[in-house]
């Protein structure tokens, strides 16, 4: 059992109300910062680093130059066209530039949050949870990268009778996962690819621990598998049949297909992330329909986008 020290503060980067894609019903999704994977297609690249970080919105900039003046590392300059240039390797995240940017072109992604504040924010929409069969979802990043804070949140929500969902990549210690699952009603478990070599190449880690934890989760809690579906990477008939076969063997309730969308690329540039060459694109709608039929033929429930 995880020994918690009562850490009642964590780092989050968003609380999204009225979410309908992170579990059943109307939900509030709490996004915690930090992830052990480095998926090159990540829709939320700002979630990967555990600490707060700078995000740049060039289209909001008026080129007043105040950010350049206060930067102690000389990481900011302006081109002749008045477009800001960032030397990201020099940035030390002091956020002095954010303090002087009145246009909101420079913002901080990630903030420290108190347990009570997060719980109270989630409580605001209790009536919607009750009427829709919804609740709260912990997501990220990987929420269990902050294990004490995540388990405390889940504990408080369960004590208040709020339906709890954990959205996890599965690359965490079984001890931590087991401790969290005792306060969880449903797990959304990500499966990127069944191919260990491809998983290692495009996420930075192999998938052995993830597969072990998928078995653990499905044996303890209602579990949905979620596949970020990328054309030419993990969307072949053989790929999806393997996942469906595994899902059936584990007693998984459902498989959700999440077609790739390119929103993460723009956000990656805004935080200075050097994107890896990876021609990600969503599969064609007809192909997705075929994959849904395939999953159903295996005796497994399937959906797109939830």
Describe what this molecule looks like in 3D:
- This protein is of the alpha/beta class.
- It folds into two domains: 9-50 and 112-304, Alpha-Beta Barrel (TIM Barrel), CATH 3.20.20; 53-109, Alpha-Beta Plaits (2-Layer Sandwich), CATH 3.30.70.20.
- It is built from eleven helices and 13 strands.
- The chain has helices spanning 66-70, 96-100, 115-123, 126-132, 147-159, 174-181, 196-203, 208-220, 237-250, 263-270, 285-297, and strands spanning 9-19, 27-32, 53-56, 76-78, 84-86, 106-109, 111-114, 135-139, 163-168, 186-190, 222-229, 254-259, 301-304.
- The strands form three sheets. It has a nine-stranded mixed beta sheet. Strands 3-6 form a two-stranded antiparallel ribbon.
- The chain starts with 8 loop residues before the first strand and ends with a strand.
């Amino acid at each position: 059992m995880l020994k918690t020290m009562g850490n009642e503060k964590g780092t989050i980067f968003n609380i999204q109300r009225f979410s309908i894609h992170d579990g059943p019903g109307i939900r509030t999704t709490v996004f915690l910062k930090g992830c052990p994977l480095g998926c090159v297609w990540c829709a939320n690249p700002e979630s990967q680093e555990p600490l707060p970080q700078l995000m740049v919105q060039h289209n909001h900039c008026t080129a007043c130059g105040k950010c350049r003046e206060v930067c102690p590392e000389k990481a900011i300059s302006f081109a002749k066209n008045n477009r800001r240039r960032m030397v990201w390797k020099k940035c030390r995240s002091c956020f002095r530039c954010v303090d002087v940017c009145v246009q909101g072109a420079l913002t901080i992604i990630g903030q420290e949050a108190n347990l009570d504040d997060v719980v109270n924010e989630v409580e605001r929409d209790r009536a919607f949870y009750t009427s829709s069969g919804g609740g709260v979802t912990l997501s990220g990043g990987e929420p269990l990268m902050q294990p004490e804070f995540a388990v405390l949140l889940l504990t408080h929500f369960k004590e208040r009778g709020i339906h709890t969902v954990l959205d996890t990549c599965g690359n965490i210690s079984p001890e931590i996962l087991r401790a969290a699952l005792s306060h969880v009603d449903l797990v959304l478990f990500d499966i990127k690819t069944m191919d260990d070599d491809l998983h290692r190449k495009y996420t930075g880690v192999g998938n052995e621990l993830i597969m072990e934890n998928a078995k653990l989760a499905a044996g303890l809690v209602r579990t949905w598998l979620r596949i970020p579906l990328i054309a030419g990477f993990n969307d072949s008939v053989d790929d999806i049949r393997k996942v469906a076969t595994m899902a059936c063997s584990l007693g998984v309730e459902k498989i959700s297909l999440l077609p790739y969308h390119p929103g993460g690329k723009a956000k990656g540039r805004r935080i200075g992330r050097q994107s890896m060459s990876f021609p990600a694109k969503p599969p064609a709608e007809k192909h997705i329909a075929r994959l849904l039929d395939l999953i159903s033929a295996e005796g497994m429930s399937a959906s797109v986008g939830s």
